[in-house]
Amino acid sequence: MADQKPILLSGMQPTGDLMLGNLIGALRNWVKLQEEYDCLYTVVDLHAITMPQEPKLLRKRTLDLLCLYLAAGIDPERSTVFVQSHVPEHAELAWILGCTGTMGELSRMTQFKDKSQRQGKNIRAGLFFYPVLMAADILLYGADLVPVGDDQRQHLELTRDLAIRFNHQYSDTFTVPKAYIPEMGARIMSLTDPTSKMSKSSEQPKSYIALLDPPDLIRSKFKKAVTDSGTEIRYDPEGSPAISNLLTIHSALTGKPIAEIAERFSGKGYGEYKVALGDVAVEALRPIQEKFKELREDKPGLSKLMADGARLAQRRARRILDKVKRKTGFVTRPR
User: Fold this and answer.
1) What is the pLDDT of residue 292?
2) Does the domain spanning 7-181+299-328 belong to CATH 3.40.30.10?
3) Could you write out the DSSP letters of every residue in 62-125?
């Protein structure tokens, strides 16, 4: 149909604590994308187990992440929101696609090389197969566009290659997705090392602000954030990366221009400024934390949300997977 919105899919792993950088750099953009696209947002828990996970913690983080999607503004009435493992078609299509891919293709994946070095000798096979599962996530819904960062571009190229190969061998089946280059959110750096990106997988809790950090902890982390050798509150990423990072966060949370913020605090010390920024962050995160608490404590509502999301996602996934299985030569299961 001419008025049909392009399909866009994205997701996050339930590992680590969702933090300020995720909100500013990704989640806020996801909320805006709901206006223009037919969006599917998933918690990719199957991907999470390519690295060792504690089962109880994985379950908690999966539910937390789902609730944070909604608390940040993702609307299940406008987007399909679901947990990846609730739709078994992801794993089923991944196997079929894996049988069209090659060892050479997967062994060239840079992320596999990097992560396998950290795992040592006992490298998990799932880590090697990870890009194929990602391809299944995307192709299963006919996604036209996929928001990707630099670390996932190579995986999207593999997805495109697998789709084109299958279409050539069996006739047009998959939409060949394109990378969606999102409107650049502010690049948020670590509070303890302003030369490194703020990361939810960091082993240093003081380096990031988690979205669920209590107010006192948020204020404390900003008070202890590293500063530059000077005293002037000015935006200069090269000469004063630490205070520049704090100004970037301040601007992203308030919508005020960095120059205006810097002018307001001109002549004041780093200590006073960091106290003010802590207060700003507490107030910015308060509505998200309140909505999260409401969602997380409503267990029947959360269960219904997951069931509805899985049902909507599976209905869409089933159509494409049935087509794939028929073309591959599998006997259709009697209904």
Assistant:
1) 98
2) no
3) HHHHHHHHHHTT--TTTSEEEEGGG-THHHHHHHHHHTTS-HHHHHT-HHHHHHHHHHTTS--H
Fold of the 205-294 domain: Tyrosyl-Transfer RNA Synthetase (1.10.240)
How do residues 117-155 score in pLDDT, each as one tens digit? 666 677 788 888 899 999 999 999 999 999 877 667 888
Q: Which two tokens stand for residue 17?
A: 């604590």
How many alpha carbons fall within 13 Å on the CB side of residue 95? 7
Indicate if 205-294 has the same CATH topology as 7-181+299-328. Answer: no
pLDDT at 210 over 80: yes
**Type of residue at 151:** D
End-to-end CA distance of the chain: 29
pLDDT of 184 higher than 70: no
Is 293 a known active-site residue? no
Q: How far is residue 162's CA from residue 145's CA, in Å, rounded to a whole number?
A: 16
Which residue among 197, 206, 323, 325 is the active-site one?
197
Instruction: Check if 224 is active-site.
Output: no
Spatial strand order of the sheet with 178-180 comes to 80-83, 38-43, 7-12, 145-147, 178-180
Q: Where are the domains of the chain?
A: 7-181+299-328, 205-294
Known catalytic residue at 197? yes
* pLDDT tens digits for range 306-323: 999 999 999 999 999 999
Closest to 109 measured CA to CA, from 97, 101, 100: 101
Which of these is catalytic: 32, 56, 60, 115?
Answer: 115
Beta pairing, strands 38-43 & 80-83: parallel
Checking if the pLDDT of 92 tops 50, the result is: yes
Whole-number mean pLDDT of the chain?
Answer: 91
Catalytic residue selected from 60, 113, 121, 200:
200
